[in-house]
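Hi team,

Filling in the usual template for the complex we talked about on Friday. All components are listed, including any nucleic acid strands or ligand strings, so the model treats them as one assembly.

SUBMITTER: L.P.
PURPOSE: interface mapping
COMPONENTS: two
RESIDUES: 537
SEQUENCES:
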Amino acid sequence: AADSSGGPGAPCRHHAQLGACESRAKYREGWRPRAVKVYTINLESRYLLIQGVPALGVMKELVEQFALYGAIEEYHALDEYPAEQFTEVYLIKFKKLQCARVAKKKMDERSFFGSLLHVCYAPEFETVQETREKLQDRRKYIAKATNHRDCFVLKKVEGPKKTASKNSDQDCPWSTSGSHVASNRDQSCFTSSAGVSHNIAYPSGNQNESLLTYPYYDNNCAEISGYFGQNTSLTPSVHPGGHTPPASLMQQRMVPAYNGIDRFMPRTTHLQERKRKREEGNKFSLIGMSEDNTEVVIGPQLPEIPKVDMDDESLNTSATLIRNKLKEVADSVSTSVEKPESSSAKPLVKQRRRI
Amino acid sequence: MELGRLEYLQALVTEFQVTDSTEAKEQVLANLANFAYDPSNYEYLRQLQVLDLFLDMLTEDNESLVEFAMGGLCNLCLDKTNKEYILEANGVEPIINCLSSSNEETVVSAVTTLMFLTTPRSRAQTTALPVVECMLRFSLSANRRLSNLASIFLQDYCTPPQVEEARNFSKHTAVGIPLPKD
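RESULT (copied from the run log):
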């Protein structure tokens, strides 16, 4: 056990070439025989280990082959790594993970000077910082790849400032940066930040509110900033002036803040969101809907238009007023859209067909 | 091809549910876990309740099923919706339990998944004292992958007081989460 968990240069279990799986059902047999293995970000690496290189002094040619897939930062032979007779083992470090990925895919099991290469990832050669950057890149990639969904929600909520999306308050572990727009996820969210304070920009514009970095405080601020981000445009009547200093509201709204975020989505957004989902859902009608016949929800759960008690008389009154106003607006919007197209004056929502 | 892919994933899930063969279950689960790496599949996987499938597999006796399920969760948990779903489903607990596994991949996936699932609301759970204490021990491991990840966990996801508390805690107790065997 000690050997295989040794430092870089020692054989690791994840280097082992597993036998190809023979027993796959036809429909899921790939082009090439493959072993049963799951690739996670922990297994992938810019470092590739290449076994089976014939001991013919062909390092230059080997590196040239691999360089076809991207810039190489480092390479050298691994003399201490166990190798089959007449073969050598090499380590190649790519500049980019994506290049390493492609190189591995293309070069694994390829014949090279008469010998079959075995290429695998070698994450054990990474420094802590390299591993950290690898994880951060993965975060950024996912954020970008799924960003369109968050942007959809954000765009619908008009506000003077587009800050403090749910994105940042959910994903920043503890050093929150509410000032980041959804698409602008840079490193400062995730750097180790003992003792460093971040300015959290509230939509109300109090840019200079520099808060303490104790996690508890950050937790609440993150949620509050999200709260502000969502409802600024819709509830000027609830928050006098629309630019209430964060501090006073923070004290009042600590606990219900998170629930409050979703409450003030405009009615029109629900309609458009549901229409879009309906249109998409029709494409997948072969799977039907979920058992209880509700629409399959994609993306953050938008609540039903609530009749919710906010534990406060005046807030409830205001909320009811707003709700009614929204309904009025929504009805008039959908009516004006419908009119040229159909003779019915009914709002869109009543004609919704449930599958 | 969107429709083709959904059908394919559906077929995988169905095979998993229907088959008696352990081998087939493992293959299918690994397949789904690999699909979970690509964000373009997330909506389908959610529709097919694959997230629940992964979470359910974490308590299986079969080590491979646990390994693949944990890998699948690691792959898809960074997406906001998936993250919220896993947290709502109390997924943190079984993932923490995976830290005790003797399977290296399972442990490594669990460490990363806990990092990815850490939010202001969940961090009380994901960085609870026993977890931090476990990470301290992992950070001293000869296994470089594990020690790197544990170090990042301690540096980036825990406060200095938390780490200090865990250090003091481990001085006084013998009970802990064991290192994975190889």
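MY TAKE: The beta strands of chain A are 47-54, 72-77, 87-94, 111-112, 115-116, 118-121. The longest helix of chain A spans residues 313-338.

Thanks, L.
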